[in-house]
Amino acid sequence: MRFLAVWNLLWFLPVGGTIVVLYILRLRRRRVEVPAVLLWRQVLQDFQANVPWQRLRKHWLLLVQLLAALLLVLAVAQPYTRAWMYSGEAHVLVLDGSASMLATDVAPNRFERARAMAREYLQKMPPGDQAAIVLAGVRPRVLCGLTYNRSELLRALQSAQPSETGANVAESLALAAAILSSFAAPTIEVFTDGGFAEPRDIDTGRARLQYHTVGTRAENAGIVAIDLHEDRNAPGRFDLFVAVRHNSERERRYTMELWRGDNLADAQEVVIPPKSEVPVLFRRLIPADRPEELRVRLDTRDALACDNTAYAVLHPVRPLKVLLVTRGNLFLETALNLDPRTTVEKTTSPPTTETAGKYDVVVYDNIEPATPPTSHAVLIGVIPQWFPVVPLQAVENSVVVDWHHTHPVMRYVDIASVRLSKVTPVLPQPGTETLAEVSEGAVMVSLQKPDKRWLLIPFDVTSSDLPLRVAFPVMMLNALRWLSAPSESAERGLIPAGGLAVIPVPGEREKIEVRLPNGKTTELSVQDGTAPFEATVQTGFYRCPDTGYLFAVNLAQREETDLAVNQYGSPALTGATAGVRKVLARREWWHWLAGVLLAVMILEWVMYHRRW
Questions:
Q1: What element of type H or E holds 95?
Q2: Fewer CB within 10 Å of terminal CB in the chain, N or C?
Q3: Half-sphere exposure (CA, 13 Å, Cβ side) for 101?
Q4: Running DSSP on this structure, what letter comes out for residue 414?
């Protein structure tokens, strides 16, 4: 131990000497004669002390007071030791809050272990350094800005909670780098299990990036994909598809259970080869007359529980009313009438707003509506001026070269090399989505608004070979279902955890409540008939008690199920002054001595009043 002001130790000599002198010095008393001393024995004892000095006797109060004086002098001398400490002037601690951090391969789980490591880091930081805390979830969140206050940092760290989502580590690092941009030698400390692709292209500026890894590679199995779609060969019935994956080194057997509400509806046994993934299909589910909760449960106990169950909502199939505005198109009429649940009425003139409101979808075939439709619509062979596209030069004998395979309208549709004898391609504007295109531009565009959806096909289908393909009726049926479904992804449980759910709100409501999977409720504001909701950080079912709207959220991410633990190294430093990582720093002890001094003074006060 060393002292910053070693000469202050000499103060103990006068202070301690004064205390001792007070114990051997007695006051000289005035001499008074009395008739008897029988009742004055105590006075006689004091009389014996009426000499200037007396022998120093053992006294506990004296020892305690000398100890207090010694502690005071030591504190004034500022003792210190040297210890290795983290130093970087400013630090940002990035705490991984993804679903894989809930794995229990280390007790109690990876997140709590990472929190403990971050807490230790804060306690070891030099007193002059400041720090901030960022929670890396699907969207990074600053829990505490840069501060010197250790208590505030520890409180923010304690408030951090993991979520059942993935983690956008790249954005979290970019946010940390932005916080530290004005410092010369900062550090970014990432507390994670490394269950993500290493973000190599992140520019952290002068900040040094350091990973602190938690967890061990643990065996785990989970559901990594889910889809619910209508059976093409059995209209009105749905197939539920899930993909199950495990990271075990050996083949394993699992049981998959399908629950409809609280009832077990089906079970299948699956065998998964080592480190593989297998599909499981529950076929031809018949919808009930109300939205129904579907749960697929993987019957196993492993390190991560939140990926063992997947959720979907099976909605009742309602009949569609379609108004076809055409002067005659046999192919189109046939395609629209293929679904027995669809009622198609035909007219030759654009309907009024009131008339159009009676139908679920209005299909305009080579007839342009005078005003933008107020309902869901398909526009074929026309390019209205109010549609957000720019017409390009008309071309002849063009061929479809690409299409949006994953869009609901193009699901199970193959339109490769469809020939268009004459078409006016368009240039899509912001807000639209291209579904198919030729080499000259887009030939199928969708537009989605909060209360309606439009599909634009700017060529006459009879001037192409598309109606002769099997893809045409499938595409039109898909289009009718997509146009009439307010939010297909939400209804069919395709919202990834952390994704945005757009909740339709009929009527004139300004606020609605959403009940979360854990039973709590939250209030949302309604804008233009919808309520955007992005706090989907828990897997399970979300329900609006006011409207009865129900949707499901799933984790379904292979990176989280694999429970990989990757050890990432620090990237090359980009600044000359970067690199300060661990230094031999001074650790002062005066505040500890001050605390002990206070305790000793309290002890001295107690001893004095009890006359020990």
A1: strand 90-96
A2: N
A3: 27
A4: -
Tokens of 116: 């403990």
As given in the structure block, the two tokens for residue 234 are 């059995």
Distances (CA, A) of 229 to 375, 412, 489: 24, 11, 11
Contacts of 611 (CB under 8 A, 6+ apart): none
Give me the torsion for CA of 472, 478, 484, 485, rounded to 10°: -170
CA–CA dist 53, 25 (Å, integer)? 5
Helix H or strand E encompassing 108: none
Pick from 153, 90, 159, 162: which is nearest to 122 by CA?
Answer: 153
Q: Which helix (H) or strand (E) holds 424?
A: none
Give CA–CA dist 39/27, Å, rounded. 22
Q: What one-character DSSP code corresponds to residue 6?
A: G
325/197 Cα distance (integer angstroms)? 52
Residue with tokens 């008339």: 355
Q: Are 254 and 221 in contact (CB under 8 A)?
A: yes
DSSP class of residue 99 equals G
Torsion of CA 261, 264, 269, 274, to 10 degrees: 40
Q: What is the mean pLDDT of each run of 10 residues along the chain (612 residues)?
A: 83 87 70 73 59 70 86 87 68 93 92 94 84 92 90 93 91 90 84 85 82 88 89 81 92 94 93 93 88 92 92 85 91 88 89 88 91 90 92 91 87 86 91 91 88 89 90 88 65 75 81 92 85 90 88 89 81 41 67 86 81 56
> Residue 460 corresponds to which tokens in the numbers above?
């006459």
The verdict on whether omega for the bond into residue 108 sits within 30 degrees of 0, i.e. cis, is: yes
Cβ(225)–Cβ(554) below 8 Å? no
Q: Which of 433, 438, 444 is nearest to 475 (CA)?
A: 444
Name the CA dihedral angle for 143, 145, 146, 149, rounded to a multiple of 10 degrees.
-70
Cα angle value 526/531/534 (rounded, 5°): 135
Which residue type does 321 have?
K
